[in-house]
Amino acid sequence: xxxxxxxxxxxxxSPRLRLEEMLSGKKNGVPLIDIGTTSLTGLRTSALPHLFxxxxxxxxxxxxxxxxxANCKRLGSDCIRAGMLYDPQIIKDGCFTDTFGVxxxxxxxxxxxxxxxxxxxxxxxxxxxxxxEWRLSVQQVKQELSSDNLVIADAPCPGxxxxxxxxxxxxxxxxxxxxxxxxxxxxxxxxxxxxxxxYEYMLRSLERQPDIVIYNDDLGFQNSMFFSPLDFRSYLxxxxxxxxxxxRNLTPAAICFHSCGAISPILPDIANLDVEILNLDTYAQGxxxxxLRQKLPGSVILHGVNDLCALGEVVAKQDKAGIAxxxxxxxxxxxxxxxxxxxxxxADEVMAAARGATFIRNFSDEGFKAIRRLGPVRSIIEEAIxxxxxxxxxxx
Length: 396
Description:
This is Uroporphyrinogen decarboxylase (URO-D) domain-containing protein. The chain has helices at residues 15-23, 69-74, 123-128, 143-146, 160-168, 170-179, 181-205, 229-250, 267-271, 289-295, 308-316, 320-331, 347-361, 365-374, 378-389, and strands spanning 32-33, 57-59, 64-65, 79-85, 95-97, 103-107, 110-115, 137-139, 150-153, 212-216, 254-259, 277-280, 301-307, 336-339. By secondary structure, it is of the alpha/beta class. It folds into two domains: 1-86 and 138-153 and 306-396, no CATH class; 87-135 and 155-287, TIM Barrel (Alpha-Beta Barrel). The longest helix has 25 residues, at 181-205. The N and C termini lie close together (5 Å).
């Protein structure tokens, strides 16, 4: 991979200081950028296959790779990854079994659970089910990169609801919440203790504390929630609050909470969990970016809710209307960390994300603040377009 020449202007404050300002409630100028780090913004094995040679996975389900930290910088990222590493799975007849005992089936390049080890389990079976022993390698941060970049610790395992669905089956667990509360409670307790043990192992293994730590837990379908808001508040929020409280006792890092799905009705509940950063699915029903910004406290940092790849694509086409739309949406989402809305599956998506990062870098803080305040300013946008198109982005 050749260097992507990003214009990092002299006098710009460091990413770590900028994050501190955002966490203190200030709306940032040019946003921080995250590309190629965690399972949220990383490269899948299919994106640039030559980078996967002799490499490890950061997420065995999403097939994201542990990109060299210097390559994250070349893509324009202010962030580098730390966290668990997985060997490539041994796949037989299109299936593999994960560390939880869940079997996954490969369908058109994507894995989905095909069997659930606790689907028919009784209460005693759940309480006795063996917890994973965490003995994985951990990606450390290179010392020469740690001072100038934000360190993001990837989620070491799925979240509370994700694990319950994996072990029990989604529909069976939803029935448990409605009719078999003792079973549901036991699964949630098993999952909570397992998750905390994973974070304890990862954070204890890291040579330096991260700036941000990811917590993933999908809470909805594309057009609705898995549970009613009442059931979510009654049965899931207390467990999530306990988990996040214990996680805060392990690290001073800001917590980035990720969820897919149409979860607009419970956004205030998630915000009340006192997470600093939210990564949400803005393609789900009722989850448009401007609506999210209005519903959430102004102090909450949005991560990856604006489509960085779409921004890069319209810049390449010199689609000024599209550029004006996306850059204004990004500016008015502040405080914000710009990132792809999903992991990157192909070279075109990687190139688009890097071009979007280059375009953002070609704004001054004052220019970006002007767009947030006034909307699209033609002279500012055209100057950034011209600078971006003059820079060649190439990958080997």
